[in-house]
């Protein structure tokens, strides 16, 4: 956070800033960009940690745990296409994004609560989460490009892509830190238990009951962390004005 604050100060004084201060000062743009950063953190955190969760808690093989990501991807692609079509029809992108992120938040809370409910329950919720995530990028990109105007179109699109990349890195790192941190708090030395659990996947069982309980608690907190990130993205999405894309962008003539 301190780094981002310092970056904003440097960018305002730079003759050729990486992220234009004009974009940062536009409420629609910075809210959408932050929403996408959190969206990417949630998506990549889930992609990295879900197969690990399936392997060490349910004894599912690496191949099958990878295949169980397919519903997430299919839902995301399908809803993304449908969202783009809806936006082109209604001209109002905000609600699709905000509702989708709300669904994602609820999905992670349900996932943390029903973490012991079995593979079918987990896959069903990841499908729901994927559907919610699918609404984010089409809506965010449309809003950002609309608000940026013609002269700042390229810079705004690049800022959105940059935030998605940074978000992915943050999501993978944060979820791993939470997972390992909770393991150490609940059961010191349980990181060794995690290694043993991975080695025991093909046998279909966790190494010890103590490690199993610690792992369940660690993954529950990890899913709640993703839910908290999704909740922040939801708040930002709902705070964006309900745009009418048929109207002229604000101050577009000055950009």
Can you walk through the features of this model?
The chain has helices at residues 2-13, 21-25, 27-58, 62-67, 70-90, 94-113, 119-133, 136-148, 153-186, 190-199, 209-239. It is mainly α and 255 residues long. It has one domain (29-239): Growth Hormone, Chain: A (Up-down Bundle), CATH 1.20.1250.
Summarize the model shown.
By secondary structure, this protein is mainly alpha-helical. The protein is 78% helix and 0% strand. The chain has one domain: MFS general substrate transporter like domains (Growth Hormone, Chain: A, Up-down Bundle), CATH 1.20.1250.
CATH topology title? Growth Hormone, Chain: A
Average pLDDT works out at: 82
| Strand and helix order | HHHHHHHHHHH
CATH C-level class is Mainly Alpha
CATH architecture group name: Up-down Bundle
What is the chains' assembly state?
single chain
- Rg to the nearest angstrom? 20 Å
> Helicity range of the residues?
over 70%
Largest sheet properties:
none
Q: Output the CATH homologous superfamily.
A: MFS general substrate transporter like domains
Total helical segments: 11
| Structural class designation | mainly alpha
Tally the beta strands. Answer: 0
Task: Provide the domain count.
Answer: 1
Alpha carbon gap, first and last residue: 29 Å
**Unreliable residue runs:** 201-211
Question: How big a fraction of the residues is strand?
Answer: under 5%
Shape type: globular
């Amino acid at each position: 956070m301190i780094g981002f604050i310092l970056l904003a100060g440097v960018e305002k004084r730079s003759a050729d800033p990486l992220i234009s201060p004009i974009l940062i000062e536009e409420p629609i743009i910075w809210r959408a960009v932050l929403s996408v950063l959190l969206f990417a953190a949630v998506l990549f955190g889930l992609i990295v940690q879900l197969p690990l969760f399936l392997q060490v808690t349910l004894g599912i093989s690496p191949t099958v745990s990878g295949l169980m990501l397919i519903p997430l991807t299919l839902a995301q692609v399908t809803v993304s296409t449908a969202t783009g079509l809806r936006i082109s029809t209604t001209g109002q992108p905000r609600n699709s994004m905000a509702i989708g992120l709300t669904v994602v938040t609820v999905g992670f809370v349900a996932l943390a609560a029903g973490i012991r409910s079995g593979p079918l329950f987990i896959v069903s919720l990841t499908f729901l989460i994927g559907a919610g995530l699918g609404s984010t990028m089409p809506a965010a990109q449309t809003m950002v490009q609309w608000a940026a105007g013609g002269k700042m179109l390229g810079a705004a699109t690049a800022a959105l892509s940059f935030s998605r990349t940074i978000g992915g890195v943050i999501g993978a790192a944060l979820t791993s830190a939470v997972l390992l941190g909770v393991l150490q708090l609940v059961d010191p030395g349980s990181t060794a238990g995690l290694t043993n659990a991975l080695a025991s996947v093909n046998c279909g069982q966790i190494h010890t009951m103590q490690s199993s309980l610690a792992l369940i608690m660690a993954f529950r907190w990890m899913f709640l962390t993703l839910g908290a990130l999704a909740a922040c993205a939801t708040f930002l999405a709902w705070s964006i004005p309900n745009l009418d894309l048929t109207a002229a962008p604000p101050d577009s003539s000055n950009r």
